[in-house]
Amino acid sequence: MNISRRSFLKGSAALAISGILGAGTSAFADDAAQGQEEKASLLGSVEETWDADYVVVGSGICGLSSAVDAAERGLNVVLLEKNGFLGGTSTVAEMCFGVFTDMQKEAGFTEELGSVASIMKTTQDYHHYKTNALLTRKFYEESADNIAWLKKQGVNFALVMGIGNSYKTAHVYEGLGAATIKTLGARAEELGVQICTNAPGKELVVEDGKVTGVLADVDGKIVRINAKGVLLATGGYSDNAEMMKKYAHVDASITKNAGIAGRDGDGIAMALNIGASEWKSMGAVMFFGAILKNDRFGTHLYSATSSPGFRFNERGVRYADEVIDQINFSHCGNIMAQQKASWGLYSKATLDDFVENGTIFGGGMYTPAGAPLTELYSQIEADMASDDPQVFYCETLDDVAATAGVDADVLKAAVERYDGYCKTGVDEEFLKAPEYLIPVGEGPYYLFNQSLGYFTTSDGLYVNEFNQVLTADGEVIEGLFAGGSDAGGLQGDTYDVGICPGSQQGWGLQSGRVAAKYVAEHM
Prior knowledge:
Elements: H1 5-10, H2 12-17, H3 29-33, E1 46-51, E2 54-57, H4 61-72, E3 77-80, E4 95-97, H5 102-107, H6 110-113, H7 116-126, H8 133-153, E5 157-161, E6 170-173, H9 176-190, E7 194-196, E8 201-207, E9 210-218, E10 221-226, E11 229-232, H10 241-248, E12 255-257, H11 266-272, E13 285-292, H12 300-305, E14 310-313, H13 324-327, H14 329-336, E15 342-347, H15 348-357, H16 376-384, E16 391-394, H17 397-404, H18 408-424, E17 445-457, E18 468-470, E19 476-482, H19 503-522
Parallel strand pairs: 1-10, 2-3, 2-11, 3-7, 11-19, 12-17
Antiparallel strand pairs: 4-6, 5-6, 8-9, 9-10, 13-17, 14-15, 15-17, 16-17, 18-19
């Protein structure tokens, strides 16, 4: 007998009680729908039961802002965090999206922003209309209030800026994400939110087709927390190699995950196991460009690695305008993902100049443009002395070719063409702007084995503009919400950093507050 997703959802309470439904697995929506074998339910292992109005699973910008907002609205809130600390990858975030904010008005940016409609038009074109327009419009319209709300909580901003050719929508946190999480965490405690760390959500409780709570591992025992609403804000699936391969078609073993560990797709899996659906266009990842496998975002070595020098792939040929790393780092990630290898080649003379005068773009908010990279050579030496070096010293281009495993004649021809463009100021292959044409020049050289970096996944469950989780046919799963990187609809196939930087952090803030408001006003 065939069971529709809607019928499956409505009958899930009986299944859960009988111990058939389980969550916290790596099952996907199609697996659940086809009735493949899943882990037994933990309902029979419950040792303690709590009652709350609202349960938030995850404590990044989405989960913390939702818990604080809900508590301000008078709800009794339990916040669950898998790690032993709050914040997840939001602790290393730099900025948060907003349009028509007070900061933008004071800086004189509102005229160039145009209107919500014009921004919508630009982003919809960028995403090829693969986004949820109702959800996106609501996000844009409420973003100024979100920034104002953060300020009210005590969060400070250093400046508002753009990246590359983007709108100036990035509101840079003072003290970056770590300071913001600390402020919101303190606010949550002040409001009486019950915060449980080292306490992963494990399974959703479903009764009569509605989510009525969650099972969590708290202090080594399974606790059932009954609630009117449950928000999944577990940070997406960046650390789940199976999901990364399935949805983003990326081999996680050859990428550099720059986020905080623990984003295993838990929230998405819990929802899929009760009949929820993924967003219709899965696979968006917040890629960024070249980074070394042993390095981290923001170091002096990273600033050199991501500078617009000469790059070549496993065939020994140049494959892109290297400035794309800074103009739209997600686009850089897209093209790097097509290569089997990416190598950055710099002469020692170029690196000496970086040490003295810095790089054109710097390294995000961590290393300002033009700041001398005084730690560059010590970081290079540390990498070269490691068990798995990613930087190599080469006297000649023949040495470079041998180290990279490419044909020396092909590489030399590519370098000759590129250095010729540097002399004429015209890049005939990729039209790289002349001010960014850094010649390879004479040796000796340093060769960087570049990896594809990513910060987070930026899609997830199928939700409506109120962040209610939906089945594949668009039916609301009552009592269940998803936000941040557990919820899809804002991004198409590529994170829109080149249009609206800070949008994923802003989406986490927006979706968390929207869910809290809905539970407070409607449940």
